[in-house]
Input
Amino acid sequence: MRKIIIDTDTGSDDAVALVMALRDPSVKVLAITTVSGNVPMQQATYNALQTIDYAGTYKPPVYKGIAKPLLCELEDATQVHGKDGMGDVGFRAPVQQPESEHAVDALIRIIGAGGGDIELVTIGPLTNIAVAMLQAPEVMKKVPRITIMGGANFYSNPHTPCAEFNIMADPDSAFLVFNFGVPITLVTLEACQTNQAPLTDDEITSFRAAGETAAFCMDCNHTTYDLAQKVRGYRELELPDPVAYAVFSRPELIKTSFTAQTSVERGGTYTRGTTVFRKRKYFFETEPYQPNSTIVTGVDGPAFKKFMYELIKD
Ligand code: BDR
Ligand code: CA
Output
């Protein structure tokens, strides 16, 4: 069984990814660590605990992480995910409480005690991971791979013309993580958008009917698909974090990807948070070419939806 820690800024699509992970028989979630992003960290923590309750399986410990990006101010995504990050539905309150240990300390302790087989799945800004790498580099080198929902290849994010939210929200932390040396699978926005990965109006309705947990997964996203209705004129639901989780759990779902030496633009009036992909060494370059990442740009949409449906239904 694969062992993971999920780092999340729990908003509505994070919630679906958490449900999937907690119900995936091939995976054990050792811990959930929270970070500011979609919503401030305290709210993300509450949402993660709430989600564990609705997933209805086991209850991994939840650790509160860093409340502020490394060097910049937090820009949240409540305009997409609702004021509470969960569609402002008013789901029942969680019973489980967060742990008292800090998320960064928990990451270092759990990975340090492990046998080099604990993977990270990150579905929010990379602040906790970067700080853990700064604090305990030798321990964090034991992580065999990080699957990151983040970055964009050709897609333009509404926040800025060329960056995706998770990277843009804390580009300095993302820069540190990409330059640290642990192999990365980066699931970009393109992978979540193209190849029919978004749920259609009919699929939202039919998934919703598949039990309490499935209804929770759809309803918490209603501000997201309502926004699609407003902006595009039709209801659909993009689910970046569930696609990233699916890529982690079922890599055979990847349809298009490439290998790159990836870094992150930290400055720039227009380009802050852009993921920069160096795909090969050019003859005039003197610095070595050191690929650090697999960049996923497309998935098998129907197979992703089937995988998700099987996990969230009752
Ligand atoms: C990412 O940002 C958030 O809106 C989602 O939760 C996802 O992690 C997509 O850009
Ligand atoms: Ca997220």
Notes: The two ends are 22 Å apart (CA to CA). The chain has one domain: 2-312. Residues 2-312 form a domain with the Inosine-uridine Nucleoside N-ribohydrolase; Chain A fold (CATH 3.90.245.10).
